[in-house]
Structure formats: C-alpha cells, structure tokens
C-alpha cells in the first residue's frame, strides 16, 4: 500500500461478524443468498462470494448475466440468481454459464423455454408494491396458466422485493399479504419463496418464506438508524489515501474551483490525490470530513476530479505521505454518515468509491489478497483493449506463482492471441496423442519397454520444414520449447544412447504427404528435420500433422508425463500399457475452462480428453502412472 495514491481495504473479519449478527434473525429452516451485484457493492464480488459460500450461503445474487459470467470465469460454481430482468439477447449467455434468471413476464419465459437445452431453473418475480421489475398481481393468474405450457421452465423460486423494509412496517405487511395472494393465483409450487432483503430480514421476515437476500447490512452499512438497536454492524470497506502536498493560505485566499472557499486566517492545508473520479462524491465539496491520525479534518473548497483539499488546523505534525481515511472505521466516516451530509445514498457511495483504487483484503488482521487497479475483470471475449494488458499479466502471475513463466506465457501466447489485432497466433487444434508401451523383442527387454507414439493435430504451417527433437536431458530440450519450427520433443532416458537407432521416426506426414527426414546431432540434441518441397504451397494455411515415433522407455520409471506446451484447442491423450497387466492411472492437470478433463478407462490404459472446442493453456498435461 506504500506506493498507492489511494486504496480500499476490505475487512473480511467485519464481514463475517456482520453475517453472524444477521444470522441471529434467520430461523434454521431458512437459507440465505449473498447479494454480490455491482461487484458486491464495490467490495469485490469474487472475494465476497467465496467468503459467503464458506459461511453457508446457498446462492449468490447478481444484477445481470455478465456479472454472473464473471463469477463463473473466476471459478464460482454455486447457484447464481440474476435479480434484474434479463433481455432475450442474454439467454445464450445465461445458458452457457449456468445462471438462474428471474422471470417477470411471459415473453421472456417463452424465449427461454425455446432456447434451454433442459428444464431451466428460474425464479418468478412478483411486484407487490415496489413498482419496479416483476409481474403485477393482475398478471399472476394468466401467467400461472401459461407456465404449464412451458415444459422447459422449472420454477425453482418465487420472490418479491420490499420497497421500504427499513422503516415502513405497515407497507411491508401489505406487501406480504399481496405476495400470498399472488402465490395463490399463480398456483405453482417452488422450492424457494423469498421476499426479504437485509433490512427486511431484521424487520419484516415472513416466517413461511425460506430464503433471504442479504446485501447492504452484510457490508456493515445501516439502511436506517433504528436498526442500530437490533444489530451491531462493522463497516467492511475503508477508503484511504495519503497527503500529497502541504500548502499555506493567507486570509482571503481562495481554495479550489470557483473560489467557493475563502481562508479566514493564516492556514495550513493538505492536498489529497483523490477526487470525484475516484468516487468521492462532488456533493461533499465544503462538507466532507476525513480522518488524519485521530483528528477529523474538514474538506475545503470544491472537490475536483482528481484532488481535494483538507483543513489541517491544529494538526501541525501532519506531513506529506501521511495516511488519511476517507471512509470507514469512525462513526463520522461510516458510509451512511458521510452520505447524510449531502442527502445521498450509502448504496451509491460504496459502489462508486475507490473506483481507481487497488483493493486489499484483510482476514484475521492480515492482508491476504489484493485485486487490480482497474475495476475490470478477466473475460476472454473482452480482450480487445490494450489497457487490460497489465491485468492479464497480474492474473496469470498470481495463478502460476512464477513471474518468469507467467510473462513467457503472456508475451508469447496470450498477448498475441487475445490482444494483438492481427491475431497472428498458431495453436494446435484436434490434438490427439496416443502412446503404447509393449515389450521389445531385443535384448534390453528387461530394462525397457518399447514406447510407440502417434501424434496428430491441425495447425497453421509456418515453414517448409519442422523439427522433431529428442535429448537425454531436460535442459537441452528446453532450448526447443518456444521455437515455432519444432513440433515434437521427447525426453530420452539418460542411459540410452542418443541416436536414430533408439529414437526412430517411422512416419511423418503433412496433409497425407510423407515427408523426408534427416537426422543430425546438434549440441547434444537429436534433431530430425522433416521436409518436402510441396510444403511451400501450404505455408499460412492450416494443415494436418501426423508424427509417429518408436523408442525405449525405462521400466522402473513407473510414470510417463505428457505436456502440452502449445496453446491447444481440443485434446485427447491416451496411454496403453500392453506389456503388463499392471493397473494404470491417469492424473491430468489441465489449465483451461475445466481442470478435470474426462478420463476414460480403455483396455490396459486411459484416455483423457477435453471437449472438442475447449481451449487448453500451456503447462497442461497428464501423468500416467503404471
Ligand atoms: C439488491 C437487492 C437485494 C439486497 O438488498 P439490501 O437492501 O442491500 O439488503 C435483495 N433483493 C433484490 C431483488 C435486490 O435487487
């Protein structure tokens, strides 16, 4: 945090505390849904979702399909309900990412029914007085009838939303009555009935519902001061910055745009490097307070886009670089206190604040994680913007935990693939690798198996030749990793002589044309150059490669690893051990959409395969153990 101009701290201990406080109001038979829309009200949807699920949340609530998709990309598999009405154009995304839409009318239900591959779970939304989304009471009867025709729609839940549960109990009661009437008119049984948002859970929870939807209160923000008597909540978000400059003014000097602040004395004041573009509301001009050390300092002058000025009267010790709290902790700096200064909404403030700031997550008082500066997450179909570059790099680096490998993968593969406009990337496609072990006829049978491999894939041809490389050591083979003219690498046991006799390439074809092979040993590597005059004609087009090899593999090794070092689309890797009846196991490690490809037992072996069009990133592979 030392080098940040401003940052948000997300206190997951406070979040846990708030959830446990609110749970006191939820009977055992009811489940809860954590609302993580708008990036969890600015707290970071992914982290909050994980924390909520660990605390027993049954479901997550988002605003739209894109928010749901992001969570899916980040590996969240729990049910996700889309609270706002979806557009028919979002249906493919809903299906692809296994999201649960809410349904407010017949047209959307009909479109979903037609598109869904199986009965699709939905939650029906009833408007009982919010006057926003949801079907009106008058429509419920017709809707109930229409639903009976839609066999591909499974009504998993029926819900409504309170308009003023924090402070209007009479209206909440009326909404509950209307909701019951709507349920009667619909005449559809569902697994979940839900009405209460977080303040409704405290104030107006109908006991016959069985799910609550928790939002603002879990983030430690009171929707009404009266709730303080019922629950004690701690703010989860703190927004901080530091003093970037100390200034002095004389009486009558003005500070900021339009000269709205005039110094009445000789004064010392500070400049903070945040403004309304960072989400610090413009309406806090001449009204807000920030905390420096233990003192509250008033905001003076108009808030600019990127800067604010604060009065440092009686704070003589304060210097540049000192930390300043703009939101969080102290009562006066709670979101609801700050927004009360300008009659604003705490929901809005937390959604917007820290938009340009890195987020740091704390648990048990320790910093456990941070999320990047730009509030955009990692969605492959989104990679058109060069600004995303650093985010991709950081994401990979964290995932792989090696800066070097991450930057290699990033520079050589992902950047070309997703960012560069020309998309000049070569990847393998329909990758199929079969490996068979059997007993060799020759004398070395007691120490070695005969290993026969057959590799096939499609790829754009770059050169009129390519190389098959075989070496006795990994360090020698590594030289051949990122070369675009090398299509196959094999690591030969150290005790086997490096010669074409022990590593044969009986067949190499491109588009069915048999290539000429020429072997030579170059700096400790057996290079087999495969070429044909006709290959010139195929350069730049996708061709079908087939390469077969025969070699020896040490018996006592008991395992064989197959790595994918190119970006690959659709892979099948099989291993058969015909020389013994020993049990074979396959341990795949795929980096792609799914880490666990299908493993299918075959005679004396295993076949591991991904879906046909699935992208698999380098560093994936399978270890076969025998
Ligand atoms: C946002 C939202 C909630 C959460 O409300 P809070 O007041 O933040 O607890 C619950 N239900 C629906 C339908 C929502 O849109």
> Which strand-content bin applies to the residues?
25-35%
From the spread of the alpha carbons, the general shape counts as: globular
CATH topology of the largest domain: TIM Barrel
* DSSP strand count: 35
- Indicate the percent of residues in helices: 10-25%
- Which structural class is indicated by helix and strand composition? alpha/beta
Name given to the CATH architecture of the largest domain: Alpha-Beta Barrel
Task: Supply database-style keywords.
about 625 residues, alpha/beta, TIM Barrel, Lyase, Ornithine Decarboxylase, Chain A, domain 1, 11-stranded mixed beta sheet, 14 helices, 35 strands, globular, binds pyridoxal-5'-phosphate
Condensed summary:
With 626 residues, this protein is α/β, with parallel strands linked by helices.
Structure description:
The protein has 4 domains: 25-228, Alanine racemase (TIM Barrel, Alpha-Beta Barrel), CATH 3.20.20.10; 237-371, Lyase, Ornithine Decarboxylase, Chain A, domain 1 (Beta Barrel), CATH 2.40.37.10; 385-420, no CATH class; 427-625, Immunoglobulin-like (Sandwich), CATH 2.60.40. Helix content is 21%, strand content 35%. It contains 14 helices and 35 strands. Helix 7 (140-149) packs parallel to helix 8. The longest helix is centred in the N-terminal third of the chain and has 18 residues, at 169-186. The structure holds pyridoxal-5'-phosphate (PLP). Pyridoxal-5'-phosphate is lined by residues 35, 37, 83, 161, 197-199, 213-217, 223.
């Amino acid at each position: 945090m030392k080098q940040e101009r401003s940052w948000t701290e997300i206190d997951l201990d406070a979040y846990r505390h708030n959830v446990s406080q609110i749970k006191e109001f939820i009977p055992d038979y009811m489940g809860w849904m954590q609302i993580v829309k708008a990036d969890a009200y600015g707290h970071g949807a992914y982290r909050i979702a994980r924390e909520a699920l660990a605390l027993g949340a049954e479901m997550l609530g988002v605003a739209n399909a894109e928010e749901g998709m992001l969570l899916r990309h980040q590996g969240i598999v729990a049910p996700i309900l889309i609270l706002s009405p979806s557009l028919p154009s979002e249906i493919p995304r809903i299906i692809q990412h296994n999201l649960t839409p809410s349904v407010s009318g017949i047209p959307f239900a009909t479109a979903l029914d037609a598109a869904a591959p199986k009965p699709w779970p939905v939650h029906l939304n009833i408007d009982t007085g919010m006057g926003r989304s949801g079907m009106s009471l008058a429509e419920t009867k017709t809707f109930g009838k229409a639903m009976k025709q839609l066999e591909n729609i499974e009504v998993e839940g029926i819900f409504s939303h309170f308009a003023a549960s924090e402070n209007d109990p009479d209206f909440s009661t009326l909404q509950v009555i209307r909701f019951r009437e709507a349920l009667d008119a619909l005449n559809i049984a569902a697994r979940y009935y839900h009405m209460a948002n977080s303040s409704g859970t405290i104030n107006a929870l109908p006991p016959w519902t069985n799910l609550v939807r928790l939002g603002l209160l879990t983030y430690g923000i009171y929707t009404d001061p009266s709730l303080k008597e019922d629950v004690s909540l701690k703010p989860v978000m703190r927004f901080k910055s530091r003093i970037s400059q100390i200034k002095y003014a004389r009486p009558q000097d003005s500070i900021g745009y339009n000269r709205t602040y005039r110094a009445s004395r000789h004064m010392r004041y500070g400049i903070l490097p945040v403004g309304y573009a960072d989400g610090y509301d413009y309406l806090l001009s001449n009204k807000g307070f920030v905390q420096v050390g233990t003192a509250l300092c008033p905001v003076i002058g108009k808030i600019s886009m990127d800067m604010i000025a604060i009065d440092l009267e009686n704070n003589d010790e304060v210097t540049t670089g000192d930390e300043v709290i703009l939101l969080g902790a102290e009562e006066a700096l709670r979101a609801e206190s700050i927004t009360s200064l300008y009659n604003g909404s705490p929901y809005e403030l937390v959604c917007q604040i820290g938009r340009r700031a890195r987020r740091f997550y704390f648990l048990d008082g320790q910093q456990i994680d941070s999320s990047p500066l730009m509030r955009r997450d990692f969605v492959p179909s989104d990679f058109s913007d060069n600004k995303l570059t650093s985010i991709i790099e950081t994401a990979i680096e964290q995932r792989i935990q090696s800066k070097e490998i991450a930057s290699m993968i990033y520079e050589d593969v992902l950047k070309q693939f997703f960012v560069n406009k020309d998309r000049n990337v070569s990847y393998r496609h329909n990758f199929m690798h079969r490996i068979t072990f059997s007993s060799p006829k020759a004398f070395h049978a007691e120490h070695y198996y005969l290993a026969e491999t057959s590799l096939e894939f499609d790829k754009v041809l770059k050169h009129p030749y390519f190389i098959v490389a075989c070496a006795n050591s990994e360090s020698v083979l590594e030289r051949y990793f990122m070369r675009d003219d090398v299509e196959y690498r094999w690591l030969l046991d150290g005790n086997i002589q490096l010669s074409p006799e022990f590593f044969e390439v009986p067949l190499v074809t491109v588009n069915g044309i048999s290539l000429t092979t020429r072997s030579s040993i170059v700096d400790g590597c057996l290079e087999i150059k495969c070429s044909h005059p006709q290959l010139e004609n195929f350069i730049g087009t996708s061709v079908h490669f087939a390469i077969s090899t025969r070699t020896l593999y040490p018996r006592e090794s008991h395992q064989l690893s197959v790595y994918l070092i190119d970006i690959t689309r659709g892979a099948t890797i099989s291993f058969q051990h015909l020389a013994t009846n020993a049990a074979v196991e396959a341990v795949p490690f795929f980096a792609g959409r799914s880490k666990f490809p299908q493993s299918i037992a075959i005679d004396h072996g295993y076949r591991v395969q991904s879906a046909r069009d699935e992208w698999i990133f380098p560093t994936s592979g399978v270890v076969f153990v025998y």
